[in-house]
Fold:
Amino acid sequence: MLPTVEIPESLGEAVGTLGDGDLVLAGGTELVPRVTTRATGVSRLVSLRRAGLAGIEVNGGRAVVGAATTLAQLGRDERLAVLRPVVESIASPTIRNLATVGGNLFVRQPYGDLAVALLALDAEVSVEGSGGNASRPIAGVLEDGVAPRELVSRVAFDVPDPGAWFYTKAMRRRQNSASIVTVAAAVLVEDGRVASARIALGGAGARPVRAVSAEAALTGNPLDRRHVEEAADAAVEDASPFDDAYASAWYRRRVLPVHVRRALLRESDRPEGSR
Amino acid sequence: MRSRVIELVVNDEPQEFLAPPGTTLLIALRESLGLTAVKRGCAQGTCGACTCLLDGEAVMSCLVPVETVDGAEVHTLEGMAGPDGELDELQAAFLEGFATQCGFCTSGMIMAARVLLAEQPDPSREDVVRAISGNVCRCTGYESIINAILDAAERRRATGAISYTEKGA
Amino acid sequence: MALQTEQIDRSYFTTERGEDDHAVIGTPVQRADALGHVTGGTEFFEDVNPTGLLHLKMHRSERHHALLKRVDVTKALEVPGVVRVLTHEDVPANWYTILRLIGVEPNDEPVLPEDRVLYKGEQIVAVIATSEAAALDGAAAVEVEYEDLPAVFDVEEALAEGTPAIKPHGTNYFLYEGHHCRRIRFGDVDAAFEEADHVFEWRYQSSPIEHAPTEPTGCIVVPQADGRLRIHSDTQACFFTLDNAALILETPFSKLRLIGGTVGGGFGGKVDVIVEPIACIAAMATGKPVKYVYGRAEEMQVSSPRAAERVIIKDGVMADGTIVARKVTLYVDAGAYSRHSPYGTTKAAAHMPGPYTIPNVWVDAHCVYTNRTPASAMRGFGVTIADFALESQMDRIARALDMDPLQLRLKNAYRDGDMKAHRKVAEGTALIEVIQRGAQLVGHELPGEYRGLSSTDPREA
Structure:
């Protein structure tokens, strides 16, 4: 049978209605195909479409994004224009009009490029459960998920300065393709040296991962070619890529340092706007 | 669990039908309303043959449980021709530009293009490619489709036609 | 922007051209169905939605090669909405052999398997239900116990001494009038290799290629009041479907009425008769309309791809680029069942040695069975991959001889009146003119002797 769909009209109602075995339905881009094309045994979905969880607030450089905000809405927001390359690297407009920020935290790799970016931004995730709400670092949520009957309501992060933000996604096609490797980095340079670096990788393991070895290699050094290449090579140690239809683990390991370097040196493999 | 009564405004006409639990917008349009221009190519959101407009935005209808969009406005290919059957500029451009072969992707392509032209009356080639990046064609190789969309944009600009879809708030 | 059409270049073959009264050729003619496509009116098979429609989904093999020890449908029948389950016992004549009516044998593919499965994804049990979701649930609830048999995935391994036969007729190759392959024997390649200045041998391999039509394979069968069955299908081959369904159902052809011709992408992938017969049986068993359509995962893995091929070409070549001998060993990976592969392999053999006149030609073209998804037709099958191998070979010869690759081809190009390796006289050839014109269009200079060649000039002895 196809599952029934509950449509709560507030966050509280959503949390209250979530039962064991229920799945949370946000944009549905991953969940709906699953339940309509296979026998899954899932009997109930709880839709967040009307629960008031979409919306973006930016105050004092800190963004708070409702979990049900669509990727398209995120991409249209002028205050978050620095993240537009991330949004536009994901799927197609017809997917982005449905897929949500919250949903992107839970899709399996090599999807979930926004989650990689949010990991690099050290985002805080608000998780709601029957006991109330809690703010958790994104790394934990990406690694462990949330408990049954919990759901993510908001994601918060400091909006990076465009000069301190780096992103690249290597794909098999120019549009609408999952990741071979994704690199997202927030790097702060002070007095000519890297004061802090947060580098997150996608396509590099079962979940998005921080390239801590690369971060350590960069910190305290100038952000120049030599040090970027050292950091890029070190990043391979933090990755445990897998084979899939898009690329083999061998290939991902092989090209990962190339794309880390290209991201941090802002070398695009294709000039903006060309075919 | 019982069916729900769903109300949609489809091609500017109010419609009402029963939807069993879990029915997608795609199946509701095709089987409850007989609007079969939206096609089922994959049911996975990867082919785009099911693309229609939901509150002015292009979406893949195979991904939307129709119960969650009760009350929404939906536009499909069937609503595009004029009252006397005059073809919309996009339809005419696809027809005259040989941008359709087997026809299975055509509805989705035209709907994706429709939203593009509503937002950008003078799109670049790159804009067109991005707009149809969710639509697969296995027959034409895409060039004739891209040319037809650019041609339609030119025709609209020439006649000063007003685009009639507006993005939802 | 108006569609640009190239005018036909009438300067070629003027003596053969005769009265040039083309009224349609050379003009842009609109497709009859294009208006329906752009207005949403074209009716594809799944756009038909009869009342009371039932849905058929398959339980498929999880193994590459196995005996079916036990098939238990009890739990499937208990799923709410499931109305009927079909196994091989429900199929009147349980063989699908595409070219049965013109005597092509043997029967090797069951409609539903009786005792074993030969590829992962093979259909085993059909579950019919009142909703698609219930049919999927029912298909998942079928229980099958397998006894694995050794599986083979490589064509040369399949043919190797000691590899067990996976087919009931006892060999891992299709038998061509008692022979293990299609053979062309023309002249004496071994003697020619002795005389040649160079002998080159290279090996080529292609992978199976999936058509991936945007519209998946499927049909809807509707019982009619007059006792006939109305079949709405997206087949490319309506008469194949009509004939083969009738043979499988053991009914007169007149009992079936096929509505088709609207195909959402075929490319050769919708020329087999896999979904209609079992859907007809389901419609007859229930008295209701039944839909059997592939999901996207089925379309990608279960539906037939273009066959993978392995081609080994050994050429004897003179210093001036004349190819004096060509020996081709070709293996078509037909997968688990014949379908169109025996025919495709014949085409491959007949296509050798390509559009070139070579006095000594030897071809062994094998149609090989493995435990892969059965291959079938796709876009010039039998010829397309052979051409990839042949033309790659020509380029490599040219490189080895430090010769212009177009000149190499022109030197060896076939002409009208040449005897081809399968003993038909070439006529209406045009390779020379095509190469000359192509060279001209891209600005590739050809020396005068090559510019002066013509397909209609007989070759000097």
Summary: Residues 89-159 of chain B form a domain with the DNA polymerase; domain 1 fold (CATH 1.10.150.120). Residues 143-159 of chain B form the longest helix (17 residues). The mean pLDDT of chain B is 94. Chain B has two domains: 4-79, 89-159.
